[in-house]
Predict the 3D structure of the following.
Amino acid sequence: MRLSMSKAVRPVLVAFLLLGGVTGVAYPLLVTGIGAMVFPAQSGGSLVTRDGAIVGSSLLAQSFAAPGHFWSRPSATTPQPYDPTASGGSNLGATNPLLLDVVRARVEALRAADPANTAPVPIDLVTASGSGLDPEESPAAALYQVPRVAAARHLDPQSVRALVLAHVHAPGAWPFGEPRVNVLLLNLALDRLVGEKGAQ
Amino acid sequence: MFASLYAVVVFLAVLTLLAWPLGKYLARLADPAPLDGSLGTLERGVLRAIGAAPGEDMPWPRYAALLVAFNALGVLAVYAVQRLQGHLPWNPQGLGAVAPDTAFNTAVSFVTNTDWQGYAGESTLSYGTQMIALTVQNFLSAATGLAVAFALMRGFARRGAAGIGNFWSDLARGTLFVLLPLSVLLATVFIQQGAVQTLAGYLDVTTLEHGHQHLALGPVASQEAIKMLGTNGGGFFNANSAHPFENPTALTNFLQMIAILVAPAALCFAFGRGVRDPRQGWALFAAMTVLFLAMAAVALWAEQRGGHALAALGVDQAVGPLQPGGNMEGKEARFGTIASALFATVTTAASCGAVNAMHDSFTPLGGLVPMWLIQLGEVAFGGVGAGLYGMLVFAIMAVFVAGLMIGRTPEYVGKKIEAFEMKMTAIVILVTPALALVGSAVAVATSAGRAGIANPGAHGFSEILYAFSSAANNNGSAFAGLSANTPFYNVALAIAMWFGRFAFIVPVLAIAGSLARKPRTDPTAGTLPTHGPLFVVLLIGTVVLVGALTYVPALALGPVVEELQWRGGAP
C-alpha cells in the first residue's frame, strides 16, 4: 500500500517541481536577462532624467498642480493620487452621484485656474484614468490648458500651442490607440523653452 | 463608427491569420504519436524524469484523477509560497506573509485559471511570489485546459478506444512546446515597448514639482506574456493591463488582445483537423465569431456615448479627432473608448479577465456586455482549452435539441450522443449558473455580502452578480469597486472558482472517455450536418438561449434597470 501510494504521488510531485522550475524560475530569469541586455532603458522603467537626476518615468503620471505646468489626468489612487504603489481607478459607476460630484469639483478647479476660458472641458481631463497613473492625455485636454500655461509662463499662447502639437503622438493609419500627449515630457520641453527664453 | 469597424475587422483578420498555423501545430501536439527531432527527445526526457510510463494511454478516470491531484498540489504550493514569502528570495520590499483568507483565495484563483485579484499586487506580493507561485500557475492552469481540450478532441476522433491520452504528455507539450516559446517572444516585445522587467527594488524619485514618488517595479513582462497567452488575467499590479508598466502602448494592447484569443481560436482549427473534417472546426469558429462580433458592437457603441449629467456640467464628451470622447472614467488616454471596449469584449469572450479599463465605470449597457459574455460560459473563443471544450458541450446540446425536433438519435462528428453524454452535459451546463446565481443570492442576503458593495442602487447588485459570474466561469475580471478581500468573499468566491473549474472538467473528461469507446458512424441521409450555416445558427441559438433563460432575470435587476436610470439623466 505504501509503495503504490508513493508510486502515485511521485510523478505528480516531480512534474510539478520540474515544470514549476522551468516556468517560475528559468523563464522569468531568462526574460530578465534579455531585457537587461537588449532593452535596459525600458526594462528598468523608462526613467527620465534632468540635469543628471531622475525626475520620474515617462510611463507614469505625476502630480502637476502649478498653473505653469500642464496637468495630468486625474488619479483615483488612494490615499494619495498618482501613487505607483497603489494603482487603480475610482470604480465609480455611471449612475453614482459621487462621480458627478468629483467631476464637478475638477471642472470648477480648472475654471478657477483660468476664469477667462469658457470652452467646454475635454472629458478625459476631468475623469480618473484606469491605472491612476496614465502618463498621457488627449490633445484636446492639453490644448484646453494652453491659455492658462501661457499666461503663467508669460509666453505667447501660439508658441505653447505649437509645443503641444509637436508632442502629439498620433497613431496614424494604425487602427488602435488614440492621439495623445505625454504630460511629463511636454512639461520638460516647456521648462526648456522657458529656460531658453530666460537666457535670451 | 468607421474607426470601430476598422479596429474590429483588422483584429479579426490578424487573429484568424495567426490562429490557422497555430491550429495545425496544436493538432499535431494533440496526436499522441511520438514527436520527431529535438521535441521528441525533450518530451521523452521529461516523461522519464517524471517517472511516467511512456506511451501509456489513460482511461478517463485515471486521467481526471491525475489532473485534479496535480492541480490540488498547485493550490497547496501557491498558498504556502504566499504565507512564507517573507522567508523566500526575490523580496526586495520585504513584504510579509499574505493573510490566510487572501492567500487561499489567490491560490484557488490562479490554479483554476481564474486569476481573480483579491489582492493588490504591488503592495502585497513579492517578486518571488509573483514568479514561483503565480507565473507557474499561469502556465500550468492553461496547460491543464489545453490537456482537457486535447482529451475531448481525441474522444471524438477515436473509435473503440479504452483511453483518452496521457495527461503527463499533454501537460508537458502544452507548457514547454506551446506556451513557453510564445511567452518568451511576446515578453521580449512587451519590454521593447516599455513593460518593465527587473528584480531591482522600488525606486524613489523626486518629481518635477518636487514631490516624492515611489515607483513599483518588478519582473512584469514575463508574467504579462503568459497572463495573456494562457487566458489567465491576473495582473502584476492592481490596475492590471491599464497599468502603463504592464501595457505601455497601443501596440502592446493589440498584441495582448491577440494573445488572449489566438490559442482558443486555433483550437477550433485543431479540432477540425483532429476529427479529419476541417469544416467542423470552421463551423465552431464561425459561431464564435458571430457571438463575438455582436457583443463587441454593443460594447463599442455603448462606451462612445456621453452622459446627460456630465454634459450639464460643461464637459465635452463628443468623439473627435483630438479626443476620444465618450465615457473616459476608468479608461486610459492611449486606449480611448474603442480599444478599451474591444479589450473588455475580448477578455470576457475568453476566460481571461485581464482589464485595460475599469469595467465598474463602464456605462450600464457597456458593462452588461462583459458580464453576459462571462455568463454565456465564455465560449466566444473562450479560454485556452476551456473555450473549445465549453463550445463542444454546447454543440452536443444543440444536436440533442435538434434530435428531439426531428426524432432521431443525435450525432456529432460521427459519434452517437446518448444518455450518459447528456447527463454529463446537463451537469456541465447547470454547474456554473448554479454557483453564480446561488452565490449572488447568498451575498445579497447576508450583511457580509452587502458590506462589499461600493456603488449605490442597481449597480451595487451588478457588482455582486459580476463577481460570482466571474468566479464560477473562471474569468477573473471584476466590477472592482466591490471590496472582495474579506473572509466572506475570499472563501465564497474560492468555492465558486474551484467547482466552476473542476466540476466542469471532470464531466467533460467523462464525455471524452465515453465517446472514445464508441464507433464512428458514417453520416446517412438522416444525419444533421454539423458543418453548415444551419448548424452554426442552431449552435449560436443554443448558447444564447441557455444564457438568456438563465441570466435575464438577474440582469434585469442590475445593468438593465441602471441603463434606464442613466438614460433618464441619473445621477
Remarks:
- Chain B touches chain A through 133 residues (CB under 8 Å).
- Chain B has a mean pLDDT of 96.
